[in-house]
């Protein structure tokens, strides 16, 4: 079209030149100067018009070339039509990258020490832009590398649950977000957004306060064609039972097993509703938390669910074409880490089998009887004894003791009938993460 305009422009210019020359020839003396002026302005006008037109033409051409390239790229990607889910091996932590047709979302970013690993992994996948960044909850093994990720990539929306922590890790994420001119978006159950052609729906947290920080975890269901994935962060029985009771559509082909396979998550009722074909456990080799718990692995095994685990498989990649899901590796084992404790006590293994049978009951009953509410931290609530932030802050530096066989943690190594020589020392936060409950006698 612009070529045509150019041709017309040239023709008009030539005609004008000829007319002007004829005019000048006829009125040589009288109108010489006027004629010259007219001719010059005409020529200038035409030159300006043509150059403007041709440069515009160039821009248009470039844009149309670009958009053609973009279209062909998207057609190319569209023909692939896949949702790729990378459960990145970040040891005892979570970091999951979802890619659909050039759109990227990262759920959690591993521990602080995983910052570089996560960044490099994303770069290797060609990620420059994260449309969505989700910090499921403010524990270090989930948001540790988040500040680094925020500083390293173009970031769209940052999802974080409505709960704060006073840890340095959390502050780093808050500052990185602010410095980038972004802010946290708090999730609401039922909210949904698109990652390319994949539909993401928020299923949890529903309540405004929970006893455990883990239950604040943002739970997202991602649907792609006929396939679906469930991402649960560290959601425990309380949150799981809430989702079950709310009659949410929990059905998913792939379940990211909650809380690294801890016995406080993946309660039977929840697992039944999700009814997955595959499960992925993000867990560190020989971790101190005894994750994954044998009870959880037994539940998965009894339902013939193929389990993929980062401690055995490394990074697990699931690729969906909207109909079928393929994994980059063979399923892992159903071997729990419950018995591979550092504790050498022979009674550990005997008791762990009894704790298996009671673990579901514990989780269920704790979720049903959950009446204690924890006030959320407001900026000046550091003195509230029940605030999550404070208890969390305390837990980080606080040492607790766990008996060789018990399910509780204690503030002293000789609580009750506990054998102080066999008591295991642990960080309180770690003990909570591992699913231990505070002893009622000493707490
Ligand atoms: Zn956690
Ligand atoms: Zn965790």
Describe the structure.
With 443 residues, the protein is of the alpha/beta class. An eight-stranded mixed beta sheet has the order 6-5-4-3-2-1-14-15, with helices on one face. The protein has three domains: 2-78; 82-327, 4-Layer Sandwich (Metallo-beta-lactamase, Chain A); 347-438, no CATH class. It has helices spanning 2-26, 32-80, 115-124, 140-143, 146-152, 168-179, 237-245, 268-274, 294-302, 310-313, 347-368, 388-397, 428-433, and strands at residues 83-87, 96-100, 103-107, 129-134, 154-159, 184-185, 192-195, 198-204, 219-224, 227-231, 254-256, 278-281, 306-309, 316-320, 325-327, 399-402, 408-410, 424-427, 437-438. β11 (254-256), α8 (268-274) and β12 form a beta-alpha-beta unit. The longest helix has 49 residues, at 32-80. It is built from 13 helices and 19 strands. The model is unreliable at 1-32, 34-78 and 340-397 (pLDDT under 50). The termini are far apart. Helix content is 39%, strand content 19%. Bound molecules: zinc ion (2 copies).
